[in-house]
Amino acid sequence: MFGDYSIGDLGSIFVMQGFAGLILFSVYVLMALGLAIIFGQMGVINMAHGEFMILGAYVTWMTSNLFQSYLPSLFGGYFFLAMILAFVASGALGMLVEWVLIRHLYKRPLDTLLATWGLSLMLQQAYRSVFGAREVGVELPQWMLGSLHVTDSIEVPINGVFVMGLTVLITIAVAYVMFKSRWGRQVRAVVQNRIMAGAVGINTEKVDRYTFGLGCGIAGVAGSAFTMIGSTGPTSGQLYIVDTFLVVVFGGAASLLGTIASAFSISQTQSTLEFFMSGSMAKVLTLLAVVGILMLRPQGLFALKVRK
Amino acid sequence: MTDNRFFNRSELIGILVLAVFLVVVLPLTLDVFRLNLVAKYLTYAFVALGLVICWGYGGILSLGQGVFFGLGGYCMAMFLKLEASSVENTKIQSTPGIPDFMDWNQITALPFFWKPFNSLTFTIAAIILVPGIFALIIGTAMFKRRVGGTYFAIITQAVAAIMTILIVGQQGYTGGINGMTDLRTLKGWDIRPDHAKIVLYFFEVGCLFACIMIAQFIRHSKLGRILVAMREKEDRVRFSGYSVANFKIFAFCIAAVFAAIGGAMFALNVGFMSPSFVGIVPSIEMVIYTAVGGRLSILGAIYGTLLVNFAKTSLSETFPELWLFGLGGLFIAVVLAFPNGLAGIWGDYVQPRIDRLIASRKSKPDGWTDSSVADGAPAE
Questions:
Q1: How far away is chain A from the Cα of B276, in angstroms, using its nearest Cα?
Q2: So what's the architecture of A13-296 in CATH?
């Protein structure tokens, strides 16, 4: 399959496909980060995670429309406000869902799966009723259009670079919050031993609510970033949910580093394969490889040793 | 209490009520079109029945039952499609004698894995064996390594995703997104006219009752008790010397085979098979049938399937927007408020009243795995 290309061509192909893979990687990481917190830390299977992401995307779309109509002079910077709004909207919805639904189901993880699936159906229909069934795309500000010429045969789109930079920043922020801040310590304490955490004075219910909210908020930011590279429809979230769960499980559920490593390997494999075969076969092979490896190593790539 | 290897007295009554409902009441009151719809719903009841064994009793939630439904359905559809693609039926094609979608995809010879499906005996064996062996492989790989619970659910979901993408992607071999359509005859017997649909309906109900009997037998055997024990305290069962993995594999395989029989019935009764019954969304919907009926109730699963599908058809015809809200709400309500579904409601509220009404002297058992829960609630 390499026969028709020269060495230089192949190098460029790998760089370009690698870059396409990096954009996919960014989306995976952003979605998987929230899920790693919710699933990895709390053990809740949130099938509605994709819909929280899409909420962020719709918030971004509305903000861009608002800026276009009322503040066209500031349009270049709308994205930063939109991202904050997306975080707040998805996070608030997440906390509401936790309060109404999830907190009754912590002891029944399989049932959270069914309940959140129901929630995702309702959210999808809500989006369809409010925003219409057609996909919407945001208008990018001028400075995000175009691409950077690295060499003659290698070009990288600016919005892709922006999304990747954003991913790095958010990942660092999440790592800081989870591992350095007082609140992150509380979250990890509750996960490791709920009763003891309560005994030393941590309000475990409140920690649960904010943790779930944070996970959903990050999904909202992921949706916001997603609008930079694709259009948004009511069911866009569902397309990514299984992949994202695989990313989290493959990386080892409780490990942030594992999540990033597995997002990287899955997205790179998929986008490199995509060049040589049809997209669907590339996806099948990637997923098969992941499932196969998970059968050999069920705890994922990076398993934390936690005493249960 | 008249207890034998299959059912006690109240279960016997429940099964007889269901039999009268399906064999006498529905065929007499519904026209052929509606009866065929019921036949379509009942194909999902096979899946729900398998999930009662696998999920309700064994505690293994599989979100990939659509895969097995699809495997069974595609095996049946391949046989029917080959029969429908005889040389004289397909003489306008550039290669006569192969299914139309292969011709459209520039395939000139029948692929090797299609050839055995010329034989009905092989097809029937394949409907049972292909999904059974596939489930055996997945189950062995997962349960021997003690992967269970949520991880298993996610991986079966990934398998469902892989299967759909594969079927849609390999258009030339599988018919792609449209699936296998235009199925006509079974051994020369036309499956499309009304009288054939009625015969197929009764055949399907017969198969369903055979599966119910198998499920009842498992439930009342020692095997069923071990499954329940395993669900409640897996480690203790393991320490008592049982091979937990083997019991789980068995439950998963039984569920897979039931689902496959349902899929084959679907291909026969509905006359086509497509990837839209294989993927993640239909697989989870099949779980909700079981959950609505009551995950512990064999008969409840059948009523649950019928009820949800009736609701789906009537609601989505008149208020398509409301249906998804309704389905989503149903998921949440069943999980939050009625974890044992219709059968739980029946066992908690209706059954005691009936018992009081007939002033039965029978000692009424309580708890959530008892026979009163397993009666199922007659829908409507």
A1: 15
A2: Orthogonal Bundle (1.10)
